[in-house]
Amino acid sequence: MSQKNCFIGQSGGPTVAINASLAGVVAQCKKEGYEHIYGMINGIKGLLEDHYIDLGELFKDEESIENLKATPAMYLGSCRFKLPTINLAEGTYEKLFKKFEDMHITDVFYIGGNDSMDTVAKLSTYAKTVNSSIRFIGIPKTIDNDLMGTDHTPGFGSAAKYVASSMLEIFYDSAIYKLNAVTIVEIMGRNAGWLTAASALARENGATVPDLIYLPEVPFDTEKFLEDIREKFKEKSSIIIAVSEGIKDANGQYLDQDSKYTKKDAFGHVLHSGTGKVLETIVYKEFRCKVRSIELNVLQRCAMHIASKNDIEESFEIGQFAVTSALNNETGIMIVSKRESDMPYKVHYETMDVLKVANLEHKIPVEWINDAHNDITPALHDYLYPLIQGEMAIKYTNGIPTYLDITHLKNNIVKE
Predict the structure, then answer these.
(1) Cα–Cα distance between 131 and 262 in angstroms, integer?
(2) Do the annotations mark residue 352 as ligand-binding?
(3) Angle, CA of 359, 335 and 198, to the nearest 5°
(4) What do you get for the CA distance between the two ends of the chain, in Å?
(5) Catalytic residue among 144, 146, 228, 375
(6) Is 23:316 a contact under the CB 8 Å cutoff?
(7) Radius of gyration of the chain (CA)
(8) What pathway is this protein a component of (predicted)?
(9) Which of 1-10, 62-71, 84-93 is most confident?
(10) Does the annotation flag 189 for ligand binding?
(11) Which tops the pLDDT comparison, 153 or 359?
(12) Is the pLDDT of residue 269 over 50?
């Protein structure tokens, strides 16, 4: 049997599930007899700087792989590095492929979102031009759920579970006072509103929040927004609103470009702020009631303590399937999940040409948003519901979760 060696990289923003995919790759590579399983530290950028480790040596048994699977964020670190176009930086590709050749690399697995799939596409394209037999496999991840071609992305289900749970807890916090109040919860999603839509899952156990949901897939109308609140005040005193950070008006402008509502400095310059803060100002000016905006920000990305078991298990399986696909001599692909049914929930995995995925965005179908553009439809609920099911058994030490040590990332210091 010929020698098999691979590189695995992680790139983009962290999630709860990206290490589960890494664990799946490592586990399957060990099963298939890979001699070396190298991990790029800080993605392709770190590899260009000769920064990598041997994962096969670090994860020798099932227990260590399970610990990796249950550790959030990115064990290998990340980068926000976009490979340049081949004809503009051929030396970069020559350097990478020389390293691959010297280390007898047969496969490269890259875990990430849109930009990471762009990296896979460029590497596999270059490989063809130099007749390299190295196989390049993209493994999806992103809490935004905006990758094309796949039913959903690893990491999204856990982030959705966090958003829905947080929304429920905000509801309980807000319900104790007898006064008119508006709470605006800003949720990640610049162009795709999947995570904000998931806030509706807070209603599963009888809660009625969020009262209103605004997504970037449809234009945001400020006057309609205020009218929606006015109507809700006829029903209740405390209103909770979920809003995507990327909502835009009919002209495609972000809300903090609207000088009618945005705060300005002494010179009249617009002070750019978060969407939630802009809406907080708008609501207060109109209703003069208690208004609070909450930005979930990075908290929704790596909350392993409330991860979706379905999400973690699927992420691990996708990592395993990536290795199987490579050994089937596939390259220039991304692993995708295909849903067979909602109830009972069932998916299977396939491969897709990464060129059909890279740099594209999967947004919520408009027909899954209600006609008033302030809530989701039952079809979107049925899509979301299975993705948050199941809970992970987390190890605790001294009262807080126990995760893998990441001191190997201690060199992530930017030197002047």
Answers:
(1) 56
(2) no
(3) 70
(4) 48
(5) 144
(6) yes
(7) 23
(8) Carbohydrate degradation; glycolysis; D-glyceraldehyde 3-phosphate and glycerone phosphate from D-glucose: step 3/4
(9) 62-71
(10) yes
(11) 153
(12) no
Torsion region of 156: left, alpha or beta (phi above 0 gives left; psi -120 to 50 gives alpha): alpha
| Structure tokens, 339 | 């849903």
Q: How far apart are CA 69 and CA 17, in angstroms?
A: 8
Cis peptide bond prior to 344, omega within 30° of 0: yes
Domains of the chain, with CATH numbers?
5-155+303-359+391-409 (3.40.50.450), 163-300 (3.40.50.460)
The answer on whether 180 is annotated among ligand-binding residues is no
Q: How far apart are CA 162 and CA 6, in angstroms?
A: 34
Q: CA–CA distance from 386 to each of 180, 241, 317, 369, 406 (Å)?
A: 35, 23, 17, 19, 32
Between CA 211 and CA 230 the distance in angstroms is 12
| Annotated binding-site residue? 228 | no
The residue behind tokens 């590579």 is 29
Q: Please give the pLDDT value at position 248.
A: 92
Strands (E), 11-92: 36-40, 52-54
pLDDT of residue 254: 84
Residue 62: pLDDT band (50, 70, 90) is very high
Rounded CA separation 269/259 (Å): 9
pLDDT of residue 415: 47
Least confident of 62-66, 79-83, 321-325: 79-83
353 carries an active-site annotation:
no
CA-CA distance, 143 to 155, in Å (whole number)?
Answer: 5
Give the closest residue to 59 by CA, choosing from 92, 90, 31: 31
Mean pLDDT of 290-308: 96
Q: Is 5 annotated as a binding residue?
A: no
Over residues 375-395, mean pLDDT: 97
Per-residue pLDDT, averaged over 2-7, amounts to: 94
Q: What is the pLDDT of residues 183-216, one digit of tens each?
A: 999 999 989 999 999 999 999 999 999 999 999 9
